[in-house]
Design goal:
The protein is built from twelve helices and 15 strands. Helix 6 links the parallel strand 6 (about 135-140) and strand 7 (about 165). The chain is an alpha/beta fold and about 400 residues long. Strands 1-11-10-7-6-2-3 form a seven-stranded mixed β-sheet, with helices on both faces. It has a three-stranded antiparallel β-sheet with strand order 9-8-13, with no helix packed on it. Strands 12-14-15 form a three-stranded antiparallel β-sheet. The model has no long low-confidence stretch (mean pLDDT about 95). The chain has helices at about 25-35, 45-60, 70-80, 95-105, 125-130, 150-160, 210-220, 245-275, 315-320, 340, 365-375, 385-400; strands at about 65, 90, 110-115, 115, 120, 135-140, 165, 175, 180, 185-190, 205-210, 280-285, 290-295, 300-305, 375-380. The two termini are about 20 Å apart. The chain binds pyridoxal-5'-phosphate (PLP).
Amino acid sequence: MSKLAINGGSALRTKPFPKWPIWDQHEVENLKQVLESGKWGSLHGDKVKTFSEKYANYHQANYGICVNSGTSALKIALLAAGVNAGQEIILPGYTFIASATAILDAGAIPIFADIDPNTYNIDNDKIEDAITDRTAAIMPVHFGGRPCNMDEINAIAKKHNLKVIEDAAQAWGSEWKNNKVGALGDAGCFSFQSSKNITSAEGGIILTNDEETAKFCRSFANCGRVEGGVWYEHYYLGGNYRMSEFQGAILLAQFERYPELKVRREKNAKYLNEQLSQIEGIEVLKEDENITSNSCHLFIWRYKKEYFNNVPKSKFIDALRKEGFIVSAGYSIPLNIQPLFKNLAFGARGRKVDVGVDYTTFNLPETEKACYDEAIWFPQFVLLGDENDMKDIVNGIIKVKENISELAA
Ligand SMILES: *Cc1c(COP(=O)(O)O)cnc(C)c1O
């Protein structure tokens, strides 16, 4: 008789995990206010403005500029940092595609560096090797919510006169040495897309401490208009990247709830780290006392198939899903060998544009290992469960491991 659910056995868990998004009367009330006010756009109402100020304040940043997505935020922040067409930006090879496409959108060229398998963030020792006379900036990604070592990154940037634009799209409230991420470099960008820990379906924000940067971001997002200018007067190339008041209304409610949910995620992540690290063949990411808070957008651990009868990660994940768990294999293709980059398909309708970089020659072994063999993610809403939910996760993994011989390698 098979034990594993994938082979017809009974699933370890039948109860559902918490649902996402979470909302209540606060969202309803705020939305109703916007609807009935007739001030639906952020240039007329005060919801987006209030949220921007609260969010910037929470992150100890002087300025916050809301836009329509995290991707737009990154593009605009790069342009605001003065990045010129054809300049290079260094980022990790293991991140969401938007980190890289925002760079292309800004007219610049992404240069991928490998990650540190202990953090899944950019390997700071690989940054200097990637610097050329075309390099304009470093884009650290606080992956899964885990802050990068910003002391080291800022020091490298200072030494080579580079800008630092943080991709904090997964790191709301994450802290490096008690300082919230986002305004630790020149600017930082967050996302409020549906899957994110604070969401308005779509949306993003740029944080910065620099007044000129903030002014330019605000102008770019508003068709190149300037504060105090005439409505049909446009100073800069820009576009309509504005957020609506409906999004602002939802974000204000989401943000109120955020601290409590954040504590729960961190507590559950700590428990999983303690428990999973005791299972042979599972490696959890490294604790770092400089990380004083982690948004835990993803709970990431490393699967060592040699301890699992050489069963590939994808098969292990399938088995875990059948046992009743929500689990992701994460990115399956390193960014540098995505068709977009392999084919240099940056032009209109995918036409090849030779930017003087051959992406197939990048050597990113740790990124490859993460994509193909090792990285397994639990999404943030799973971490909103209670202690029994977390115990089930641990027991589910143990069950599949103990019966691994049922899964042919
Ligand atoms: C979600 C995300 C983005 C893009 O944000 P959108 O709001 O979806 O445009 C960028 N970088 C990372 C690391 C992300 O997770």
